[in-house]
């Protein structure tokens, strides 16, 4: 297994990655950063619920958002 990994890394070091593979990786990272996924609920809903929980207990609703 080690020799396979090292040979593949050597091959990639010589030939590099294709432009489409690099673009796909960048797009994946960009999407993840823009989406700011919170799991099963949308980000805005998650932020609203955090704020409401503080608000209904007479605390600062902005504090959980910071």
């Amino acid at each position: 297994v080690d020799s396979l990994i090292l040979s593949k890394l050597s091959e990639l070091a010589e030939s590099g990655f294709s432009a489409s593979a690099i673009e796909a990786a960048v797009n994946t990272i960009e999407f993840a950063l823009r989406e700011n996924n919170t799991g099963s609920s949308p980000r805005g809903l998650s932020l609203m619920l955090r704020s409401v929980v503080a608000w209904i207990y007479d605390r600062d609703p902005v504090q959980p958002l910071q």
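The mean pLDDT is 88. The helical segments are 2-15, 19-35, 43-56.
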